[in-house]
Amino acid sequence: MNDLAHADVALVCALHMEISPLLDRCEKPRKYVGGKFTYRGGRYRHIRLAAVECGGGPSRARQATQGLIDAHSPDWVVSVGFAGSLVPEIRTGSIFVADTVENADTGESLAIDLKMPVDSEHGLHTGKLVTTTHIVRLISEKQALAEKTGGQVVDMETYAVAEVCRQREMKFLCVRVITDDTTADLPPEILTIFGKTGTQRAGAVAGAFFKRPSSVKDLWKLRGAVHEHAVTLAKFLDGVLMQLVPAPEQVN
Predict the structure, then answer these.
(1) I want to staple 18 with a disulfide (CB 3.0 to 4.6 A). Which of 81, 162, 185, 245 is the partner?
(2) What's the CA gap between 144 and 154, in Å, rounded?
(3) Backbone angle region of 95, left / alpha / beta, with phi > 0 → left and psi within -120 to 50 → alpha
(4) 135 closest CA partner among 89, 84, 88
C-alpha cells in the first residue's frame, strides 16, 4: 500500500457534526466520497488522521469500518461520537470510554483492553456500552434497556465497529460524549428527521416544523447543546490521540 494513504488513527462516526470540531484543527484537510460514505482526513499535529461518516446503524457502521481499514490500514480504530446515557449517574456532557460493548439484539459482547481511571466527579466514566438498531428516545426505553443488558450507555454503531476490528485484528477504542440522559425524553421530531435508524431524511425538518411549530425552539436548543458536546469530545480526544500516537520526541 502507498504509505501516504496510511493513517495512524482512524475514526468512525455517524455524523460529521460529531467530529467537526476535531477535524477543523487538522492541517491539509482532505475529503472524498467512496460509495455511500464520506471520508475525511488530515494531519492532526504529528498524527495522520482519517475518518469516515457512516450514518446511523450497525450495518452502515460495519461497512464503513471495513472500507476505512482497507483504504488507510490504520494502527488504531476509534469509534467516536454521541451517545445516550441509560443510568442517572451519567449526565449530558460526560465522556464515556467503553471497556465492554454489547449487541442489544443478540446479547453478544466484546471486552476492550482498557486501562483508564474513572473520574466521575469530573464527568469521565467507563463501563458497558450497548449498541441498538434504533434511536432510544424515551426515558422508559432507556430504563428497560439498562435493566435488560446492564449497560450504562447506548449508541447505534460501536459494537459493529468493534466486531470488525476483532475480525481484522485491529487495535480498537470507543470514546463517546453523552448528549442525552435519563432526565428527559428526546423530542419526537428526532424520529421524524432522522428516522428510527438515525439516517437523516431530506425535507423532514420542514415537515416537522409545520406539524409542531414549537419544535423549532426545541431542536434549535438541542443543536446548540450538541455542538458544545462535540467540542467537549474534541478536547478529550486530543489527549487520547496524543497517548495513542506519542510525538516523535517523546518516544525513547
Answers:
(1) 81
(2) 12
(3) beta
(4) 84
